[in-house]
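Hi support team,

I submitted a single chain yesterday and got back a structure, but I'm not sure I'm reading the token output correctly. Could someone confirm the output below corresponds to the sequence I sent? I've pasted both exactly as they appear in my results page.

Thanks,
R.
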Amino acid sequence: WRTLCFFLLCSPMWLCFVPGLFLVVLGISGGYLGLGNVTYHGVAIDAQTSLFASLALLCGHQCILFAIFTKMFAIQENILPHDSYFESFVNSLTLERGLGVGFVAILAGLGFLGTAILEWQHRGFGLMNYSQTMNIVIPGFTLDGLGFQTLLSSFFSRILKFRKLN
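Hi R., thanks for writing in. Yes, this is the structure output for that exact sequence:
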């Protein structure tokens, strides 16, 4: 376990950021395809695809955040050399910007979920079409999850920068 932790500490970009970026791209692509309810060579790409894509997007987002925080910590503790490009990127990620992005994502997600509830109400709170409903609910849950991760991550990033700022 110590070796794994050492590898993660010394190479967070290759071990977490790149796979996280791959998962984010896969999640966005799969989510987009899943919304279209298409069939490709006999394979139905529907709400189930969106659900798996949502998981990929959430996990990818978390991997990217983990890589950023790990590199911030490793540089701060002089385990990794200073990286001016990375440090300018991290300095542009302020608490206020993170909170703004997080709240916008949460509000957008709540908008999707509110739309689903209004549609359910319009149908007399009876049964709804699964595929159509999931095409509204899955993006709503995903945006709320991403927004919440972003809010907490913004605070954690600020905590990691705390010693530098004082």
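A quick pointer for reading it: The longest strand covers residues 38-40. Let us know if anything else looks off.

Best,
Support desk
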